[in-house]
Protein 1
Amino acid sequence: MLSGKDAQKQWEAENKIKELTDEQLYKYDEEKEQKIRQERPWERDPKYFKKVKISALALLKMAMHTTKGQPLEVMGLMQGKIEGDCFIVMDAFALPVEGTETRVNAGNEAIEYMGRYMDLSQLVGRSENVVGWYHSHPGYGYPFVAIVVDPVRTVSAGRVEIGAFRTYPEGYSPGASSSSEYQSIPMDKIEDYGVYHDKYYQLEIEFFKSSTDTKLLNVLWNKYWINILSSSAAIKNRNYTNDSINDIARKMDKAEHEIGRGGKMSGFMMEGKESKKKEETQLDKLTKDSIKLSTEVLQGIISQAVKDSLFNKH
């Protein structure tokens, strides 16, 4: 069995966390920060920002918060700075917000907490400003960088499933997307995705750490590691698994209906090759969804079996 230290090394490897030899990234230059915020080059270029660099400490804090909060949504803020076309996320903190399984609302309590937290950060020498927010469910329309963490897949995969996004200015049209990567979207979210898919773009993410935050990272890891050992992905994700199975079944019914209808109408509406290509595309997507879900369930079962053999010996 992996020790906590070995598991931490494996987690860092899975998330491709780079260890810095230079501590320069941790130095905060307020004059430089204010200069770029006043110049606001992102207003001239809607896709000015290209990358987000996140400290291992901030990544672990977000992972702990989002996995602990599921199935309810949670939200927090990130502190950091801007360097050229890159957001540097140094730290993150949770907000006391009201969450449901579909949305999270930041009320007066969260706003007051945020202000108080930032004041205390200044007192202890943490000068970085808020550069964005993180959420355990996609959101739209915020002017900073938005980090989305999938707590379900984080528990299943053993690495943090995370994405970084930034919204386009209002009225901006990015044109046709060049991305060919398939993304599984539940049927009840497809309408929202169709409305908002061209309102934001994805940023590249890198993770880093150094000797500066190693001690605190180790303390947090011990807590995270215990939670992972004492929880079951198969049990914790059971609602997600049931919803995913039902979603695939609904998509199969819809595909079967459209394929049957397309076959009858192909002579009038489209050439046979085009109809067949559309059918194959739908079935390919369903196959990918099924494989992904099966893999996640299998990972959860294997993990549970390993823990049972280790901790329930008689």
Protein 2
Amino acid sequence: MKTLKVLFAAILFVIPALSFAAPVPKGFSKVGIKAIQEDDVKFTYMSNDGEIRLNCAHVYDRPDAWDWDVWCGKGTNMLRVFRVHFLAQQFYSAKADKSAIEILYWVTDRDQVPTKMFSSTTTWLQFKGKVLPEKLEFSQGVENDYAYLTLEFTPH
């Protein structure tokens, strides 16, 4: 019975988590998870037609799970609420003298009732030598791709 419980837990938690991860490029090994502070990121909401642009406030709600609460358009009649999972991991290949950053950027639209809608992406960036980019910007489609939530990340 205990074996069945362990198998059930693995199916429920481990296997779905693996489906979101992209494979590590050949020859790279993990350097570590990039420490991210609230001031390192900025979120902006924009409709695809450019008519609506909302500034966003955010709180690093669960640093242990890399989860952020994001509110766009606070104080307006267009408030949008999102849960963002954002993680930056660094990798290095000594043999090829290359560095890489894996970015996980997943957005859950908390305004969708009764079912929360989400979209996700995993991005790999590879560089010659040991490079730390000055700024990275990622956008994720929200609201059935009628708008997007942009994340601006300044690594340190």
Protein 3
Amino acid sequence: MHLQDRLLIAEALVAFAGDARTLSPRERRAWDLADGLLAETDVPHEALATQIDEEWSGPERD
């Protein structure tokens, strides 16, 4: 999976999970999944927004 795909998924999970101080079990799982994806990419949470390429929309196709 491309790095930008992982960042896109992590971004969506964090947006879904919302405030980390008041989590339902499902939101906690979303944070855990985002943590795992970011750990695989060596991107810390605080750097997520700066690593996302807003112009990237997937691999080029012929």
Protein 4
Amino acid sequence: MKKIIVIMSVLAGVFFTGQSKAQINISINIGSQPEWGPAGYDYVDYYYLPDINAYYNVVTAQYIYLLNNRWHFASTLPGYYRNYNIYNSYKVVVNRKNPYQNNKYDIEHYGKYKGHSPQPMLRDNNAYKAMRNNGNHYGNNRPGNGNNNDRRNTTIVKKEEKKAIKQTNRTIKQDSRGASRTTTSRTQRSR
């Protein structure tokens, strides 16, 4: 009788652990999103680009565009889009499988954004910069890294460093009872 109870409890344990596998699945793909993507999204499957009625697949880093009534997948847009500026265009986040198969829906609902101003981009988001740089203030824009060596980031870093210095000017002072309190050295007078 004891063996039967032990066997039944083991089988029940196996059965219930098999059912509870991966009930919570959280995916964050901030690092794989392109820098021209709109800020504020922690997960993106596709961007719909209403200006050219095309999509961008974040996972595969491919554009999906319509040509001769067929959807084409490519890492770059074709030549007839050479004047299209992805940084200055409006992007719609689409998180559904194969959104191009329901393109009429996107045209109806998001076509009104054609020609709209762009949203704030990831490249301008401080949290995104910190994550991409991994503690390296200059990221990949240092001389010799093969990038355009743009110095705009150094100005941003200097501003960020000034903010950090201002915050470190805060001091912890002990009052006469021994309790600590945080005060700003500029505004607090000594007693």
